[in-house]
Amino acid sequence: MRWLLLALIWAATPALAVTCEDITYLGNSYTACTVDAGREDLRLFHADENGAVLGSFSAVEQSVPGGKLAFAMNAGMYHPDRAPVGYYLENGVQTMRVVPNAGPGNFGLLPNGVFCITDTSAQVYETLRFVEEGPACRDATQSGPMLVIDGALHPRFLPNSTSRYIRNGVGTSADGKTAVFVISNNPVTFHAFGSFFRDHLKLPNALYFDGKVSRLHTPGLNRSDIGFQLGPIVGVIEKSGS
Length: 242
Known about the structure:
The protein is mainly beta. Helix content is 14%, strand content 37%. The protein contains four helices and 17 strands. The strands form three sheets. It has a seven-stranded antiparallel sheet with strand order 1-2-13-12-14-10-11, with helices on one face. A five-stranded antiparallel sheet has the order 3-17-4-15-16. A hairpin with a 4-residue loop joins strand 15 (216-218) and strand 16. The two termini are 28 Å apart. The model is unreliable at 1-15 (pLDDT under 50).
């Protein structure tokens, strides 16, 4: 009877929308937030209905009546006016085209990629594959470079690089049901960051979002980073009272 009661209590307890944890791997500290993309309300946010850029986690939360952010992070590079550098699609509305060619900075360090969200999945695609396959995304953001491409690290990453920054990005499972969002808690190289996704999280594809301006909001860890105003933001909305 006791085990039956415990089972009923467990079944009646709602699962957490997002699970975030601090992880130390090969001497570096990371916070990883795992989202069930098939169940949770995972979305991109950039501007309000009047076109004003939201720019912060608090503004995103205020833009969703009756909802609260279970998790959020910056989600792609942006210009000084905070417009997306690459492809951007929000709730089916495209505001920036795909940029397939190489260019200056980390965004142009090909291959780069696109993070695509549907109502039931989330996937990281290398950009040229994304263009070729044309998946039906509801929301999408382009960024770069790719961190992991079909199980391989980006070919330009160097193990002995001296370029270290606070970095953030996302990796997805092969079936698209799980997305893991990661921010480093100390400056790391691209090689170390990509290796965390590939070798520790075992994710076949992962995409870099940004460095220097990287921010994370996770109430579960009593953390909500402040700093520069942001461009695109990704988050999970949890209805108040749920």
